[in-house]
Amino acid sequence: MKRFYARRILRIFPLYYGVLAVGVIIGIADVRDNLFWHASYLADWAGRGMGVTSHFWSLCVEEQFYLAWPIAVVGLRRRSAVSSLAVAIAISIIAAVTIPNPFLARTAGSFAYLGTGCALALSRSGHLSGKALMGGAVLCLLPAVLVTTRTLGASAAGGARLWAYWDAVAFGVLIARAAKGFSGFTGWILRLPPLRFVGRISYGVYVYHEFVPTALRAVGGTFVANANPYLRALAYLGCTLLIATASYFGFERMFLRLKERFE
């Protein structure tokens, strides 16, 4: 666990807190006004949007998961871990479809996705069979169906949130297959150097992608605002990839090299 936390800290903290520090120095209002929530990794519980830093809510969910789940795994017996996981996923989905605040509902429902990954880990370690995994995924959705039907009626928002969780099952199947490795044409595509490179800089892409459009609009003014939307999207994408690449080689990599001490 010490190695795990050390490696996660080296990957996540330097860029995240570095961007927050730069945001405060240059006066980005969305960073400055929400600094407490971001610095404490509690932005997902603020219950509101935060402009160009709104995407950081998912990083907060991730960090809270990193603190809670390993401790739960160490403290629980294997059977208790499996049953507790199923209960937690079901509660997560129920909370997502019943909490009226969409921001808090999104946070509460996040464990349904993370829990799918936990279930995959348990199945890979032999503590949960593949059939039990798929059956559990379906059963976890049934309480949410009941709650949605009885408490929300024809609520479009609640129904949309509910059915969105089937993508957790779909991606769970995809990731389980990826863990075994893809061969043939699919494997060849996924091993292409450009795709692997994007994976390498993907954290930077995540961190910067909301800032880039705002920065380009501020610099380009009406020229950017009136540009063809497809060209504008390409410009956003290109700039994000360039910034993430520079960030990776110029800043992140010196911290990533330290991860070798915690293999």
Number of helix segments?
Answer: 16
Q: Tell me the distance between the termini.
A: 12 Å
Whole-number radius of gyration? 21 Å
Shape from CA axes?
Answer: globular
- What kind of sheet is the major sheet? none
Write down the secondary-structure element order.
HHHHHHHHHHHHHHHH
Looking at how many chains there are and whether they match, the oligomeric state comes to: single chain
Report the strand count.
Answer: 0
Mean pLDDT: 84
- Unreliable sequence segments: none
Give the SSE map.
Blueprint: H1 2-26, H2 29-32, H3 35-39, H4 56-75, H5 78-98, H6 102-108, H7 110-124, H8 130-152, H9 156-164, H10 166-180, H11 184-190, H12 193-200, H13 202-208, H14 211-220, H15 222-225, H16 229-256
Helix pairs in contact: 1-16, 5-6, 5-7, 5-8, 5-9, 7-10, 13-16
Summary keywords:
mainly alpha; 79% helix; 263 residues; globular
Explained architecture:
The protein has 263 residues and is mainly α. 79% of the residues lie in helices and 0% in strands.
